[in-house]
Amino acid sequence: MYDAIIIGSGLSAVSAALKLRPMKILMLDVGLSPPPPNFSSRNIYVMRREGNDLFNGLIGASYEAFQGLDGNYISPKLKGPQMRYFWECPQGVSQNNLLHFDATTSYARGGLANAWGAGVMRYTSRELERFPIFVEELNPYYDELTSHLGISGEADDLASFFGSSCNLLSPLSLSPLASSFLKKYKQKRSKNNIFVGRTRLAVLSQDYRGRPAYKPLLQDFFQGYNHSIYNPFFTVEELCSECSIDYRPGFFATRFIEQSNVVTVVAKNLSNNCEELFQAKQLFIGAGAINTSKIVLQSFNDYETKLPLLDNPVAFIPFLDISKIGKAFPENVFPGAELIVVHNDKTYSEPVQASVYGLYGPMRSDLIAELPLSLRGNISAIKYLGAALGMLQVFFPDKASPSNYLQLQKDGSLTICHAVEDKKKYLDRSSQYSIYPFLKLLQGMNYFASSYLCKFPIAGSSIHYAGSLPMKKDAQSLYETDSNGRLAQTNAVYIIDAANFPYLPSKNHSFTMMANAMRIAERAKNKNN
Fold first, then answer.
1. pTM
2. By the number of CB atoms within 10 A of the CB, which of 68, 106, 319, 351 ranks highest?
3. Cα atoms in the 13 Å half-sphere on the side-chain side of 278
4. 477: in domain
């Protein structure tokens, strides 16, 4: 029998594993692996100029990159043929039924972090007001994770929103678009409660802990597992090498049974489709909010309860730097979020945050349908606009609503339902969900931006899923967790991913999910001892 079983190998699962050492730990995981790389370790544009055949890597033998031509939004990071492993559903696992919600789940080793943006920003006291925990409880784990992951960034105008800047690596070099954006902001800092600074990224600007510094090859959207960008499976490999965990890929955990002082996990061995049983004193579920909720509902054979589901509503605001039209396309840049814009209006409970992107990562063909000209005009224009196009991705806060839920079905699938969103709230200047403070900033810095070009994708598109098993100070309901992550009415079952978040602030939640998983694991270990 094990001291602890962890379900999953994503960000929260590995964070808990770090703190559970030296207990006897079993990690159960489906663990789909990435395919062999299709590219050499060279810049895509250099390879293209040299005449290399990039079709299979960029488009795919089955034309995978053409997904989304029907008008349904698909993140460019999920379209590449080499990224198919990230979102594939293994044989024998039920597909979810989606109603007005675009759910992305992953059974890959490392989970959703195989395609994450690597943004790691701390929650502040203000953002934790609806949680039964305090930022002082999380800070030691934030600090420990900063050293473990290797985080690039700097102390700037966002320090009060991002917490301590200690032990950060130097920031990555900025693209010409982002450099100009930051320079314009600094020349006339906004008087409209707007603050701009560097994204804190789990991307290495220098060699660190045996991993290489990031090289701008522009392959990020087409294959995962770049050793310069943190993937939780790196930690799994470290823990396995030091014999700290027993990692078992190929197992799909379906439910748990708790009796006396033993928790039994039932998991399907995907190699033979047979169920196997594993026992431990404590269970830590970190399979991602959606899959974690499914495991809990199946454990109680509950086909009636509708659990809440949170996800940050998102808006995309394109903008054009007219001075860069016709300029050479930058080939040696990081194609992720380089800057963060925070709108800190004291009228609202907490700030609203946006990420600044240059559109260097996806193929230019992905952008053609988004331009406002004719198809022929868009094809011509994109040749000259590559260096001039940018985008703000705005995340808005989310709280539980009866109309947004997930429910287990008797065939083992989940029905995930979300109310049809009223897009008018984004255009309401008095709303916390308004895009106008960001449009005003862009226009004030002489960028071309218009509300008519903004996009508001279907709910679920931000992939910040949370809230189905929320933490409460006095958790009593079966589907609540206490402040230590323990599922109510159980003795030793802990929820360690964002399923236990009672609220989603306007910020990437990964770093707080990791820190909270470490906090829960350490307290559970101390209790067990």
1. 0.94
2. 106
3. 27
4. yes
Which CATH number does the domain housing residue 306 bear? Answer: 3.50.50.60
- pLDDT one-digit tens code per residue, 10-35: 999 999 999 999 999 999 999 998 88
Shortest CA distance to 401 belongs to which of 319, 311, 463? 311
Structural domains of the chain, count: 1
Query: What mean pLDDT is predicted for residues 488-512?
Result: 96
Condensed to tens digits (0 to 9), the pLDDT of residues 289-331 reads 999 999 999 999 999 999 999 999 999 999 999 999 999 888 8
What is the predicted pLDDT for the residue at 463?
92
Average pLDDT score over the chain: 91
Within a domain: residue 92?
A: yes
Q: What is the CA radius of gyration of the chain?
A: 23
Would you say residue 329 lies in a domain?
A: no
**249 vs 270: CA distance, rounded Å:** 9
User: CB within 8 A of 229, min separation 6: which ones?
Assistant: 118, 202, 203, 204, 214, 220
Which stretch of DSSP H or E encloses residue 378? helix 375-385
| 445 lies in some domain | no
Distance in angstroms between the alpha carbons of the first and the last residue of the chain: 16
Q: What is the 3-state secondary structure (H, E, C) of 161-193?
A: HHCCCCCCECCCCCCHHHHHHHHHHHHCCCCCC
| Closest alpha carbon to 509 in 109, 113, 31 | 113
Tell me the residue range of the domain where 518 lies.
1-32+88-149+230-310+403-419+463-529
The answer to whether residue 273 scores a pLDDT higher than 70 is: yes
DSSP character string of 197-233: EEPPBSB-SS-BTTBPPP---S-TTT----TTB--HH
H or E stretch at 11: helix 11-20
C-alpha to C-alpha distance for 498 and 495, rounded to whole angstroms: 8
